[in-house]
Specification:
By secondary structure, the chain is an alpha+beta fold. The chain has one domain: K homology (KH) domain (GMP Synthetase, Chain A, domain 3). It contains 3 helices and 3 strands; from the N terminus they run H-E-E-H-H-E. It has a 3-stranded mixed sheet, covered by helices on one side.
């Protein structure tokens, strides 16, 4: 799941070296924190939050297979 989120985010941003994904697991919940350059935050969030919501949907679909709950933050 971490690799999938990193792949998606890396393709969206201009500064690919600044992309960092932190994954924390705790009692069936997975928190994913996305770190990007300040200038690329808008690209990841998207207009009206559409892109980040799509990333969350994809991550939650992957989480169903692993039977965990996913939270994504930027």
């Amino acid at each position: 799941m971490k690799e999938l989120v990193k792949l998606i985010v890396t393709e969206l941003v201009e500064d690919k070296d600044a992309v960092g994904i932190i994954l924390e697991e705790d009692n069936g919940e997975v928190d994913i924190k996305i770190n990007v350059a300040e200038k690329d935050k808008g690209r990841v969030i998207g207009k009206g939050g559409n892109i980040i919501n799509s990333i969350r949907t994809i991550a939650r679909a992957c989480a169903v297979k692993e039977d965990v709950k996913v939270n994504i933050r930027i």
